[in-house]
Amino acid sequence: MGLGNPGQEYEDTRHNAGFLLADHIARRWGLGSFRRGDRARVAEGQWQGESVQLLKPQTYMNRSGAALSPFLGGTFDPATDLLVLVDDVALPAGRFRLRGAGSAGGHNGLKSIEATLQRQDYARLRIGVGPQPTADDLADYVLAPFTQEERDAIDALLDPMADAAECWLTDGIERAMTRFNRGS
After folding, report:
1. Is the dihedral of CA 11, 59, 160, 127 positive or negative?
2. Closest among 49, 122, 67, 129 to 94, alpha carbons compared
């Protein structure tokens, strides 16, 4: 699940780093275009024998959990079946980190997901968009467009981040963290 805000005005903003990575993974896996779903755009198909669905919520960041709701139930287990692709101001642009659980850390999209799931044990791939601004400037900062330098740094990470997502899918979060969190 790539987090971001719908609409052209948010397309190239720091808060939409999750959408950028979801788009890259969909192309890389040959999933085709994202189609309208219930509260999310969805790209689905097969990757290396695994059924996959990529979601881009259309509910705006602070209601991301509502976009996840229709996919809950059945055999879905957030601890093993969910990887959230999310911007993180605590990491500098050009870095990323995987986590298997943890708090929302003030991120409204993660807060919404945790409220929907009623748990914090789900994987996330945190995409650096920092340096972190002062608290007063946080909303303006994440809703502002990337600088060219930041966008170049994010673009250079798209393949390594997709590699990390693939490792999570095939080998689990612990192995993915061991492999990809070194020096990032």
Report:
1. positive
2. 129
CA dihedral 131, 15, 148, 180 (to 10 degrees): 70
Give the pTM.
0.95
What is the C-alpha to C-alpha distance for residues 11 and 103, in angstroms, rounded to an integer?
26
* Angle formed by the axes of helices 148-171 and 17-28, nearest 10°: 60
* 105: helix, strand or coil: coil
pLDDT tens by residue, 130-161? 987 776 788 899 999 999 999 999 999 999 99
Q: How many whole angstroms separate alpha carbon 152 and alpha carbon 144?
A: 16
The CATH superfamily assigned to 8-180 is: Peptidyl-tRNA hydrolase (3.40.50.1470)
163: Cα within 13 Å, side-chain hemisphere = 11
* 58 closest CA partner among 19, 21, 113: 19
Q: Which amino acids are annotated catalytic?
A: 15
- Angle among Cα 37, 38, 42 to the nearest 5 degrees reads 30
Residues 4-56 have pLDDT tens digits of 999 999 999 999 999 999 999 999 999 999 999 889 999 999 999 989 999 99
